[in-house]
Amino acid sequence: MVLSVPALAADLTPQTAGPFTYVCGGVAEDEQQAMRAEARNYDMGLLMTEGPRGEYLSDVDITLSRGGKQVANFRSTGPRCLIKGPKGTYQVTADYQGNTKRTTLSAGQRNKQLRW
Q1: Average pLDDT, consecutive stretches of 10 residues, N- to C-terminus, the chain (116 residues)
Q2: Which pTM was predicted?
Q3: Tens of pLDDT along 44-56?
Q4: Domains, the chain, with CATH or none
Q5: Which of 57, 91, 108, 116 could join 48 in a cystine, given CB atoms 3.0 to 4.6 angstroms apart?
Q6: By the 8 A CB rule, do 48 and 60 touch?
């Protein structure tokens, strides 16, 4: 049996990476509204920005690790990524054009910002 995942407004379709489901977007106003509405269904989130004015970034390579082992990786298609998966604390490695940022992310953290 194949289960279909409903698409969000503004064509934000949930994806999977390892045991995680995620959706990225949030550049245009309609995407931002859709992401805000969908946030309650996800327990973690990242926001990627650049520079002093916090300009939005996409095409960031994201890797989630736990206990030193990679558990998921994906490329963001927008500045905000909503993530749900197994409860726990994860090490996030985010690479944008060869520059790497690291942080930790736990359930309940829906607006963890990475700034280049």
Answers
A1: 43 90 91 90 96 94 97 96 96 98 95 95
A2: 0.87
A3: 999 999 999 999 9
A4: 9-108 (2.60.40.10)
A5: 57
A6: yes
